[in-house]
Design goal:
26% strand; two-stranded antiparallel sheet; alpha+beta; four-stranded mixed β-sheet
């Protein structure tokens, strides 16, 4: 889903917040929250155009979105983002590489190790 879908009205560059669909059988225009995916027979509208929406004579407008203000991030979204950042910043401890059965580590410098056979100690 593209979070920055634009209003489909000509010359409008505002961000869409609602989706308009028509139910021709019932002569109803349905204005609801922004659809997850852009459909070819639906119209995405900004807050201004969603408020000004009128239907043809004899048609009914059904508004499913109680508020047409764009919603900001919730507390859950912010906490999830903070947890993801903490997880990404956590240092990863590499697993100790396997040492052959007949060897022993006698020294280390950075990521390099000095190994000797047990027989030579």
């Amino acid at each position: 889903m593209n979070p920055l879908r634009r209003c489909t009205r000509p010359a409008c560059t505002r961000t869409a917040i609602a989706t308009l669909t028509y139910v021709y059988a019932d002569s109803t225009a349905v204005l609801g929250p922004l659809a997850t995916y852009a459909e070819p027979h639906c119209y995405d509208l900004c807050a201004v155009h969603a408020e000004r929406l009128t239907a043809p004579r004899g048609w009914e407008v059904m508004r499913l979105a109680p508020e047409v203000e764009p919603a900001g991030p919730s507390d859950d979204d912010l906490l999830a983002l903070a947890n993801a950042v903490r997880e990404a910043a956590r240092p990863v401890m590499p697993a100790a590489p396997a040492v052959a059965a007949g060897t022993v580590e006698i020294g280390r410098r950075g990521h390099l190790r000095v190994l000797r056979d047990r027989d030579q100690i």
